């Protein structure tokens, strides 16, 4: 099992098209926000150095608007990461994989009119992406993990035919306790 924090943000890409827009693509990030994460996982090893891990995690994501402290987004996800793990030595391992997330529907957001609305009225109710990271053994069955999650799906509902793309990003720090199977 693991628990920790996400330093979360959203990447926004504006790629306007049409006769009244320039051909340049503008990309920006909002202000980071710190949200909790926790979950459980099962890992099956193919050898001493290679294994696969399936996890179920609660992930708090979102951002704060740089211009207004009143406009912020808090999206709560139930996330299913699947990763390939490679053990470098007794202390370090690296991993990468993909994830599928589903929005927890009690999540609310503050829209640009400062009204509190359901997150699924503004964002898609799921997200997909990739992640990579590493783990360091702190001692008997305890590990520190660092992961970077990159959303690949445009989660914004009103995307103006693909001209506006919102993607989740998160730098995750977790403390892991690994239960060992008894033989």
Please give the structural blueprint:
Layout (H helix, E strand, L loop, with lengths): L1 E13 L11 E4 L3 E13 L4 E15 L7 E16 L4 E12 L4 E3 L5 E3 L7 E14 L2 E10 L12 E14 L6
Antiparallel strand pairs: 1-2, 1-3, 1-11, 3-4, 4-5, 5-6, 6-9, 7-8, 9-10, 10-11
Give a written overview of the molecule.
This protein is an all-beta fold and 183 residues long. It has one domain (2-177): Beta Barrel (Porin). It has no helices and eleven strands. The strands form two sheets. The chain has an eight-stranded antiparallel β-barrel. It has a two-stranded antiparallel sheet with strand order 7-8. The two termini are 20 Å apart. The mean pLDDT is 85.
Spans where pLDDT lies below 50 across 5 or more residues: none
> So what's the CATH class?
Mainly Beta
Number of helices: 0
In percent terms, what proportion of residues is strand? over 45%
Count of strand segments? 11
What is the terminal separation in angstroms? 20 Å
- Rounded to an integer in angstroms, the radius of gyration calculated over CA atoms is 18 Å
How is the quaternary structure best described? single chain
Overall spatial form: elongated
Biggest sheet: strand arrangement:
1-3-4-5-6-9-10-11
CATH topology: Porin
Mean pLDDT over the full residue set: 85
Order of SSEs, N→C?
A: EEEEEEEEEEE
The computed structural class is mainly beta
Biggest sheet overview: 8 strands, antiparallel, barrel
Proportion of helical residues: under 10%
Which CATH architecture would you pick? Beta Barrel
Number of domains: 1
